[in-house]
Write a structure and sequence with these properties.
By secondary structure, the chain is mainly alpha-helical. It contains four helices and two strands; from the N terminus they run H-E-E-H-H-H. The chain has helices spanning 36-52, 70-79, 87-90, 93-102; strands spanning 54-56, 62-64. The protein has a two-stranded antiparallel sheet. A hairpin with a 5-residue loop joins strand 1 and strand 2. It is elongated.
Length: 123
């Protein structure tokens, strides 16, 4: 569970409060956005790449991460930048984490809450 809740105590510029998250919330899939299972798979694939010392590109070739550019390549797959050699395989872990964490107050959209602070990447 997410032990610590979060109350941003801030409002949108034109009214409405950012959603809060209560204490001790268990991660749930966010309908139509991301599944917890997918995040676990993406994290596992990134950890495997680190353990093996290479990233598997979309064409099956290996991108070495044990050189001076390795950290940049890892950043590309974690952030899922335009430079990621295999977005479909490694996903967009950092962005997915923002979305799943930010929507835990209403993961199924029952209350039609606005995007949380975590979903505003500029915050």
């Amino acid at each position: 569970p997410i032990k610590e809740g979060f109350a941003p105590h801030t409002t949108y510029r034109y009214g409405g409060e950012f959603p809060t998250r209560p204490d001790n919330v268990n991660f749930e899939d966010v309908d139509g956005v991301i599944r917890v299972r997918d995040m676990i798979i993406h994290e596992s694939r990134i950890r495997d790449a680190i353990a093996h010392g290479y990233i598997t590109a979309k064409d099956g070739s290996h991108v070495d991460i044990r050189d001076e550019h390795g950290i940049d390549h890892l950043g590309d797959i974690i952030e899922s930048s335009l430079y990621s050699p295999n977005v479909e395989y490694y996903g967009a872990l950092h962005n997915e984490a923002h979305m799943i964490l930010g929507r835990q107050a209403d993961p199924h959209g029952k209350f039609n809450l606005p995007p949380s602070v975590m979903e505003h990447f500029e915050t």
